[in-house]
Specification:
The chain has 465 residues and is of the alpha+beta class. It has 11 helices and 12 strands. The protein has 3 domains: 168 residues, no CATH class; 87 residues, Signal transduction histidine kinase, dimerisation/phosphotransfer (DHp) domain (Helix Hairpins), CATH 1.10.287; 146 residues, 2-Layer Sandwich (Heat Shock Protein 90), CATH 3.30.565.10. The strands form 3 sheets. Strands 1-5-4-3-2 form a 5-stranded antiparallel beta sheet.
Length: 465
Amino acid sequence: MQKSFKKHVFIRIFFAVIFVILVNRFISKAFMPGVVTDHVVHDMSQALLVCENKTTDVNEFFICANKNREEDISLNMASSYVLCSEQNKKNNPVVEVNINECGHFRDVHTTKDEKKLLTDSLVLLNKTVDNQDWIAVARNEDQGAAMLLVRKNDIDKIVRDAWGWRDQIIVYSLPALLLSVLLLTFYLTGAVISPLVRIEKKLRRISSDNLGRPIDLTVPYKEFQSFVDVFDGMRNRLNEGFIQMRRFAADASHELRTPLTILRGNAEKLIADFPLGSDSQIKMRLMSDEVERLIEITEKLLLLSRADAHSIQADMREVSLSDMVNQLVADADLFRPTLKITSEIQSGVHWNCDESLIRQLIYNIYTNAIKYNTEGGWISFSLEKTKEGFALAISNPADNPPHDLAEKAFQRFYRGDSAHARAIDGIGLGLSLSLEIAKIHQASLCMSVGEHNVVTTTLRYPANE
């Protein structure tokens, strides 16, 4: 069992999308603490620059800072800030911290670990006091200026809280997220498969009838050009093979027809010369029958080769199909009196066709129904008008028809299981030729095996009806 390329692409893309989502999660988790810290430091720097004149009063300072703060994650950190200044010995009332800790930071204003912030007048300081990591933003040029402090643990808590909120949102939105992943996967799968589908539709139009025509195909992407070029080369080779095959069949049939005609004439002459009923005459009659069989094969092969090459010139004119079938039914009663002939022929059915070819088509179907009939059997003719044309059906019972009869009946030289021993006369080209004649007239010809082994061959016009 072959694997589905579409299913394969779908699974690959689905897991690729899931992988991208997981990688995004791990990267976000790795960078989030640094991003939040940068936001907090930026907020602290902004507060010191804008509200520097309010540092003498803690409450006034934080009211000013909150009023001028940008809307970001640092809003949740405002209650964790500690304001230190020489003029004001009070800390942020929410955070209990020894005011002497401010002095520890002032002692390191000029260390090499300082980082410039916003302007050259601000520096970022990091220090551990009483086993707690602190971050401070202070004025660089003034050892006694105000500074803002915040514990790293408070920043980490904000990160954990934010990540927890994110996880809760993902849990609530998981159905929508999975649906989005599936829809995205379907879309990407379709985008990958669609160029192949377009190429396939174009290539499906190629048959043995149009192999000589260049492929009218605009490649959607350059990566598919080599594939189309390889197929086009194979098409040219196949076309050359078909041309040689048709030429051989036509040439062989044409060259064999003259010597076979001479053989037939000499055989008839010898039959007349031999004594009536003698063994020699009987053997010569059998030889003459085989010559006739070879002549019939060459004539049909020649006609089939012309049909393959589209070189049959049909003489189209309006023909009364009802009269043609009625005449065949009348002749059938005399030709095979042992078979019961029934018919339902609707009058007034006309067809613009080549009368000679269509007569040969119907006669081939009729003779096939005679050869593969049962003892004391019957043949039924049915002709009726349809919406745009007509349907002609010829039915007959058969003894144990092959299971693949409906599929292979129109293949060349196919005669079914019971005919290979030559017990039934025929060469297996009549129905093949009939199918080619039907195609010339834009009609369809099909065979079906129904209940009680009833074989029905149907000629339908137009073919798509």
